[in-house]
Amino acid sequence: MALIHCPECKQQVSSFADACPHCGFPLGVDDPECSVVMLSASQGGAIPIRKFAKALHVSEAQAKELLSSLPAVIWQGLPVDRAYGAVRPLGDFGVFKVVADRDCGSPEQIRAAAPVPNPKEVQQNSGTPFWHIVGAVFTALLLWNLALLFLTPFAMILS
Questions:
Q1: Buried/exposed code over 114-123 (b: 16+ C-beta within 10 A; e: otherwise)
Q2: Are 34 and 94 contacting, i.e. CB atoms less than 8 angstroms apart?
Q3: 96/83 Cα distance (integer angstroms)
Q4: How does DSSP assign 71-122, residue by residue?
């Protein structure tokens, strides 16, 4: 086992780790070639074609054609980070999804395809931090002592 440096937080991590235990950044996973797909147009379907075409860097005729055949593959063969970067400015035009290129066969495949996780949003599930557990135990002991303090006079009266 070799130690490598996490590209995100720069701390040492096992080369066998799937994700950095410090920051959750995915490691050792080759970025799949991704596609940006448009699932539906924005509410009401009133998309300004000229602006949409400019955002996609295509002609207005190509933009109209894409809108007429939804779900449509907008871009293919992108790394994950570039695919998510390309989706950000398109959010006002409709619903988009980043999927693996292999999932872009038929419209049914595109709709059913699971989105490729955005590596910048992957977070490590670190469990319950130590000091939260200590605080919970301390609170439980405090409540127990308060309950005994209030119940002791009643126990003496009953006995």
A1: eebeebeeee
A2: no
A3: 11
A4: SEEEEEEE-HHHHHHHHGGGGGGEEEEEEEGGG-SSHHHHHHPPPPPPTTT-
Instruction: Report cis status (omega within 30 of 0) of the bond before 7.
Output: no
Cβ pair 82, 35 in contact under 8 A: no
Angle between helix 60-68 and helix 49-56 axes, rounded to 10 deg:
100
Q: Which residues contact 146 (CB under 8 A, 6 or more apart)?
A: none
How would residue 144 be classed by pLDDT, with cut points 50, 70 and 90? very high
Burial bucket for residue 85 (CB in 10 Å: 0-12, 13-18, 19+) = middle
Q: What is the mean pLDDT of residues 119-126?
A: 58
Beta-sheet pairing, 94-100 with 72-78: unpaired
One-letter amino acid for residue 28 of the chain: G
Query: What pTM value is reported for the model?
Result: 0.55
3-state percent helix, strand, coil for the chain, nearest multiple of 5: 45, 20, 35
Please say whether the beta carbons of 96 and 87 come within 8 A. yes
